[in-house]
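I'll show a record.
***
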Amino acid sequence: MTRTASKERSIVKTSLISATLVAILAAAAVGTMAFGQGAQLPHGQNIAVIDVGLIFEQHVRFNAQMKQLKAEIDQTEAGWKKEAQDVNAMIEQMKGYKPDSPEYHKLEADITKRQADLKVNQALQNKALMEKQAKIYLATYREVEGAVTELCHRFNVSLVIRYSSKGIDGSDPQEILRGIQRPIVYVDKQYDITGDILNSLNRSADVGARPATGFPK
C-alpha cells in the first residue's frame, strides 16, 4: 500500500467519524429543541412539588367537616360518659342489698348487661366514626388529586412530588429524625404549586388566597 493511499484512507476514516459525531450532536440538539418547544412550560418547568400536609391544614371545607365530626365525637363520648355514670350509680345501689337477695341479683344482671352493651356500642360507634373520618380524608385527597391533575394538564407538568415546607423543630428529637430523613433537601419556590392548589380548592369558600407560586392563573 502506498503512502498516498494510506493517507487517503485515513482522511476518509476521519471524515466518517466526524460525520457520525455531527449527526449525534445534531440529534441531541433536535431532541432538546423539541422538548423545549413541546412543553411550553412557565420557566421551563415540568416537575413540581406540593405540601399536602399544609393543604389539609388550610383546606376550608376539610376543616369544617372535621370540626363537625369532632362535635359528633364529643356528643358520642358524652353519651358514653352518662351511661357509665348510670352504671356506677347502679353498682352503688347494689351495695345496699344483701348478695343473696333477689334485688341484688336483678341489679347485678342489669349492670352486667348494660356494661356489655356499652362496650359493644362503643366499639361499633368508634368504627363508624373512624370510617367517617377516613372518608373525609379520602374525599379531600381526591379533590387535591383532581386539582393537581388539572394544573398538570394545563402546564404540561409530568411529575409532582410531595414534600414538607415546614422547618425542623429542633426541640423535638423525633421531629429532628423525621426531618433529616426527608427526601427533598431544597426546592426552588417556583416549583411549589401548594399555593395554587389551595387557591383553587378554597376559591368557592370566599377566603383570602395564598400567594401564587410557580404557575400563573
About this structure: Residues 1-39 form one domain. The longest strand covers residues 47-50.
